[in-house]
Amino acid sequence: MLLFLGFCSSIQAFENYPGITPSTPYLQALRHFYDGNYPLAKALLEEIDPKSNPYRNTLMGVILTKLNDPQSASKYLKSNNTPPEVGAYIHYLTFVRHLKKNEKKKAKQILRNSLSSAESPYISKKSILALANFYFKENEIATSKRHIDRLLSDPRKDEVIFTGARRLLIDIALDAQNIDQVLTEYGQLIQHFPEADSDRTLFKRIQKNFKHKLTIHDSLFGPYENLLYLKNLYRLKDYEKVEKQATYMVKKFPDFKYISQIYVILGKTYYFQYKFGRSIPTLRRALLFYPSDKDIGDVMFFLGLSYEKKRDFKSAKTSFIAFLNRAQKSTQFKKSINESYFATAYYFLNDYYRRFGPYEDYKKYLNVFETKYYNTMPFKQYEWESKWANLKLAVKNKPSETHIPYFKKCITNPIASSKIITWYEKLITERNENIFGDKIFRNAVIQYPQSFYTNQIYNEYFSKPFQESEFEPTGIENKTNKQFKKFNTLFMIGLADMALEEIQFYLTSIDRFSKMHVFHKTKILYKLGKPELAIKSIDTGIKSKLKKYGLYPRPMIKMAYPIVYANEIKEFSKKYRVDPLLVMALIKESSQFNPLLLKKEKYGLTQLELDVCKRLNTRLGMQWKGKHTLFNPEQNIKFGSFYTSWLLETFNYYFHYAIASYNVGPKIVQKWIKGGIEQDLQVFQDQVVYPETNEFLNKVLNTYEIYSTIYNESI
Fold it and tell me: What distance in Å separates the CA atoms of residue 412 and residue 511, rounded to the nearest whole number?
């Protein structure tokens, strides 16, 4: 129930529900309930007619349980026909209270009541886990293990229960000083859920306990276990660990049956890290080990993309043609590949033959592209590029004032790209033609630092204005949905943490993707004042399950890109003359709005280094009160806004220079500029040698574009 403390500030969430308004005693009682003032909440509830509010008796039952009066609580719950999931939670609270008092018989009786509730399997498992922990502390190891085995026998590996059970087994083995058993259980834990010990805290405790120089691979005994661990690391997009793990496996298990999968994962990881020089030979090597159809498809496709990034267009063409030819010969191969791969291949080949010929091949691929893939994102990108080419040709031949409206329309369109800005700059500098006016160009550079590919993707969503109703998934209030009814009931009566756990259990126990439940989970996390967890919920719940282009569903976009700390950002952005949405994008991609984040000696929301903040502090004339100042959101945003403004001014409002400097430091970027690095965004990205900087630049520009579009360039 500790999660409720962060929920007090969001009590307005209940104002939208029937029978709950700010003036009702129920809402006042709910506020006192969150504050922990149970007697006052109980007194207010006693004044309410049960018929006027359907949740009055249930909340009264919860409060009486908290006040250690289970008999009275059961009367209220019974009289209100309490939903089974709420009753199960009451059983759980009572069960834990009896365990703490060492009342084993009463606890077991309550546990039987909890297990009989088919409506809440998660609570049943949670109760068994609590009982196993209790027996472990009582030194009844055999009994504790029996309960743990009962949990682990379930084929559905719910993350909370599975990790809790494995951690308890590790504690048991640590007590017995059985190092082999400890490593076995730890290996089982991280194979399925590497994020359960992402910071290696548990493993460091194991090392310290046994005083051995252990490595993570000591707990992964065979190649199959290592491969499962590798796949889960790749699923989490932890590319640094993926690279280390895959490199280790290639050396350790050179004769492994599925070594081709390791090379494919490693090659794709190099691609996503912008290490195209490494991705190409790694992917080519994967073909030597008889990969499956799916792996062959990945190899050919990512080889083509890597060659394209290296500007080796002929090799890219060869890879994409081989990819499409194999799909024509093998139906099984075609079924194993995502449709977006084929659309992207046709897009590239269409563009290649349009530029280099022959014209017959261009028409052949264009005909298939227009016929089969006209609804895909690559085709929409092709359409836009065709319109832009026509406009560019018209202006290039004979620029005149008649072209100004066309150019303005193009430069302010959400799908305008850095190519337009670069071309316009050349028009002014090389041909000395100012028919459009320098002011238009300057505004374009300041307001539209576009990321080309992102613009094409999100154009599908932003082609019409947003309505607030669009951010509620269809069927979210469907009363016939049994699962949603359960979560909604728990949430409305004040059991937000319980609703969250039930949703998480439901999402991990089903095979199909449920947009509605991910939406509701994220909504609760925002109400609990945890934006960083809410964004993570969207990322893991949506992006990992929607394979097609990695797009957020339209109702999730504002949740994935929220407005947080708006007042502070508006105040300091205005003061230091920087776009507040750019500051918002920098904070989101730096810290995901986690004010207490400390990573690689960078602090808080804006993730600035200590030395940088000390220098900024001197410039701003503030009194330095130590590094803990940086965990204060207001002070951190002040430093970040001023620093962003200074970087933009230093680099003449070239966003990609400023944002790259934010990540790697202005001195290094200035060195690149002196060395002759290109101003064009896409060329600049290819020439940046640091993958982390390149990735950060991409993310911030993409996020800034999305914020600018969905919030109409204002907070």
Answer: 43
> Measured between alpha carbons, how far is 388 from 351 in angstroms, rounded to an integer?
14
3-state secondary structure of 603: strand
For 420, the token pair is 């337009």
For residue 602, give the DSSP letter.
Answer: E
Burial 458-467, CB ≥16 within 10 A → b, else e: bbebbeeebe
> In the numeric block, which tokens belong to residue 77?
């719950």
Please report the pLDDT score of residue 548 as a whole number.
39
Question: What is the mean pLDDT, run by run of 10 residues, along the chain of 715 residues?
Answer: 31 35 66 77 85 78 79 70 66 74 76 61 78 85 89 78 90 89 90 84 87 83 91 86 92 90 93 86 89 87 89 89 87 81 88 85 87 79 67 56 57 47 56 53 45 40 44 41 68 72 69 66 77 78 46 67 87 86 90 85 87 82 75 89 88 83 89 78 74 85 78 61
List residues bridging with 602 in a β-sheet. Answer: 599, 609
| Rounded distance between C-alpha atoms, residue 391 and residue 428, angstroms | 17
d(C-alpha 198, C-alpha 133), whole Å: 23
SS3 call for 278:
helix
How buried is residue 34: exposed, middle or buried, by Cβ count under 10 Å (0-12/13-18/19+)?
A: buried
CB-based contact 604:596 (threshold 8 Å): yes
Cβ atoms 148, 169 nearer than 8 A? yes
Query: Which pLDDT score, from 0 to 100, does residue 80 have?
Result: 55
Report the first-to-last Cα separation within the chain, whole angstroms: 33
DSSP structural state of residue 597? -
120: CB partners within 8 A, 6+ apart: 84, 85, 88, 89, 114, 502
Per DSSP, the three-state class of 276 is helix
Residue 603, strand partner residues: 598, 608
Please report where in the chains the tokens 């496709």 appear, as a residue: 301
3-state secondary structure of 609: strand
Q: What distances in angstroms separate CA 683 from CA 302, 457, 527, one per listed residue?
A: 20, 21, 42
552: tokens are 């957020």
Distances (CA, A) of 494 to 31, 86, 527, 661, 667: 9, 11, 12, 46, 52
Distance (Å, rounded) from C-alpha 248 to C-alpha 236? Answer: 19
Cis peptide before 358 (omega within 30 of 0): yes
Cα–Cα distance measured from residue 658 to residue 663, given in angstroms and rounded to the nearest whole number? 9
Q: Residue 625: its pLDDT value, please?
A: 73
DSSP lists the bridge partners of residue 234 as: none
| pTM (whole model) above 0.90 | no
Distance of alpha carbon 246 from alpha carbon 257, whole angstroms: 15
With contact defined as beta carbons under 8 Å apart, do 414 and 457 qualify?
Answer: no
d(CA 125, CA 142): 18
What is d(CA 52, CA 40) in angstroms, rounded to the nearest whole number?
20
> At what angle are helices 141-152 and 159-175 packed, to 10 degrees?
150
Helix (H) or strand (E) holding 202: helix 201-210
CA distance 170 to 33: 37
Separation of alpha carbons 56 and 81, rounded Å: 12
Cβ–Cβ under 8 Å, residues 691 and 275: yes
User: How far apart (Å, rounded) are the C-alpha atoms in residues 550 and 542?
Assistant: 8
Burial class (CB in 10 A: 0-12, 13-18, 19+), 152: middle
- CA distance readout (Å), 396 to 234, 328, 348, 420, 432: 46, 42, 25, 12, 13
From the list 326, 366, 336, the residue with the least C-alpha distance to 348 is 366
Phi first, then psi: give them for residue 697, nearest 5 degrees: -60, -45
